[in-house]
Amino acid sequence: MLSVSRIVRFVVKPGTIPALQHSRTMSLLLNKGLINGEWVEALNKKKFDVFNPASGEKVGSVPDMGVEDTNSAIQAAYDRFQSAEWQNLTAKERSGLLKKWYQLLNENAEKIAQIMTSESGKPLIEARGESVYGNSFVEWFAEETRRIYGEIIPPPFPNRQMMLTKQPIGVAALITPWNFPHAMITRKAAAALAAGCTVVIKPAEDTPLTALAIAKLAEDAGFPKGAINVVTCSRQNAAAVGEVLCKSQNVAGVSFTGSTAVGKILYSHCAQGIKRLGLELGGNAPFIVFNSASVDKAVAGAMGCKFRNCGQTCISANRFLIQEDIYPAFVDKLRAVVEKLVVGDGKKDGVNLGPLINEAQFKKVSEIVEDAKSKGATILVGGRAKSDLGKLFYEPTIVSDVTPNMRMYNEEIFGPVVSLIKFKTEEEALTVANNTNSGLAGYFFSEDVSQIFRVARKIETGMVGINESAISCTEAAFGGVKESGLGREGSRHGIDEFVYTKYLCLGGLN
Length: 510
Hints:
The protein is of the alpha/beta class. The chain contains 15 helices and 20 strands. It has a 7-stranded mixed sheet with strand order 14-15-16-13-12-17-18, sandwiched between helices. The termini are far apart.
């Protein structure tokens, strides 16, 4: 039997998140930015409100910082990076700071999960899972910081010794999204700090409160002033702040997770200084089910990578390509499970699908479904707003008879909508799957071993889930190809984005 609970990506076992105990910190719901170790207002004294997308209620207010504030944060990070105290920290000492941060994050996991659900709307069980996932990056890079090894190279001449060493690039600007407000910060920041960089974090406008809570715990862990800075700003100031982070001469590298359109803008800004750049951009993930697949496995996988976070993840399945012989069975079983999903406020028991993040996202999802309906698609499940719950809730939806002239055939939906496309041959499925400028993640289900290796080689994505949809983990290298980004996050390769290789040639040894 298939369970609705399979849509949760991270299985939170009893005891994984410690019961909330007396914390070393006060409340983690903060209302100021962090610059040079000081919790500060914006220089313009302006604030912007953060709202719960499920209820529309105000959760808090944070500073609406601008260019001057951002420059102050960059200067603080640069001064700390240049300081003897920071430069002389050993890998073991950096590891110790990260381990203390990890401990505090674990101790306060429930508080952070509650903040995440309040500002992002995701179900509390998913927020708890993200806490476990996000914390794991801090633990991982606390260990990796002591394994940033160099090389000894056999020289071409007997009187030389040749070596390669790894050094931190400098100040790293980290621009993070709203859909994973915890994990996307720790995946970047822990790697940068492990490498010996200092950081300026600009969290998404919709979810700054989680970032501030995480930074407070880093401060409590003992990171020195200026090592970690957080600049909060409204959507109106986001472009100007992002431009400063990319163009400042004191910023050595930029890491961004978000839309491809914004990524291209930041790429152009960074070109002026030839910055080190990491981009994790939009996806248009194919989900292929071949005739040989286990239907139950495929349906469970579809639920996991389509409806987690209300379909608002960059690696969510977007185009469901189902081979014709297995199509009826797959659709029947998928429909039965989707109809059991409980939509509502993420803090209520039993809810496994929350609201969309904001009105712009709600409008986009609604318009994509209406476009498909107007062009002949069939709505098997859902297809409407759930206005009785609130203005940002949308029904879990299954759409069949999807054709190439429809937006959902070509665009990333970023919502709880399954678009079904029937195919005949493996070659046809691969042609459709690869016919996109995106290449972040792809999924396929098959029990044919030859087909598994053949399709895995031919599918044009940076990550491939084979009979599995929960592909993200700390140990894996996360990233895409084509217009889905540059570089990799997580794994031992996550450090590479924040170090450069220095070649040392020592001569005259005779």
